[in-house]
Amino acid sequence: MAVAGLESLDRLNALSLTRSFTPQTDIDWSADTTEAEFEALYPAAALLAGTGADAGLDARCRALYARYQQINLMTLTGLVERHGVAALAQLYDLEPSQPFAEYIGHFIKEEVYHYTMFLRAAERLQQGMPGLPPLPTRGMDRAVRWLFAAGGWLPGRKLRASLAFTFFRFTEQLTMVIHQVVQECAPRRDSLINQVWSCHARDEARHLAFDALVLERNRLGPPLSWLPAALAAPACVGLALLINANEVWAARQLGLNLSVWQVPGLMRRTRAPFKRRVFGLLSAALGRQSEGP
Ligand SMILES: [Fe+2]
Ligand SMILES: [Fe+2]
To answer: What is the secondary structure of 9-72 as a DSSP string?
Structure first.
């Protein structure tokens, strides 16, 4: 991706005014996502797809699993945005220029809006699962809160910015992949999950350009150039394990006898294109060319 320069900051600022959205009013919250659409997402996105561990799931259960998976992805994305806001606010100290400060303001405002949107959407999706327990989110909340707190204790403004934005970039790329998978498998524009991920992707395309700018301007020279990626990699792997452990939890609610210890094996065996693409991103975050987890 091209690195945005100063003139690009002006463009990003202008686009934040014309291309952003307000979740409360720009999303049709009365819209639904059909069982057939969730079912279509299952083979493309589920951890269990192609592993043979899901033989006991009928079509209805696969749709419910996909619904849990959407709640899981939206909750995690929202938590990263909520706890990441503090790291974003520290960026005001990085550079004194007005366009830079203006864009940080847009970035923070947009992530706060996204958090609200994902909370609402996850709640709406859960309402469509009467009798099933809500996805446990306390572990994810603690993990993300701790990750950002630990990043804030690191010495050096450049290192803190590089780490935070390596992590942001990974999660933002992840959400772009989710958006693409939803568009491919459940392309109805009015469906709730399609509206949510489409609106989000509109803002995230600009965030990724800004990530590249911050990472470029805060690049550490040798011998420390490897450090941000080395520190971000375990955080990204930890998040991937958490997301997939929640999918095993969801499968258990739907009657499968799986254990959390099977998560690494299932990650290796899954054939879901979404998972393979995410593991590719993870490999890139780890600095490898491999396509596997
Ligand atoms: Fe976001
Ligand atoms: Fe973002």
So the answer is: HHHHHHHHHHS---HHHHS-TT----HHHHHHHHHHH-TTTTTSTTTT--HHHHHHHHHHHHHH
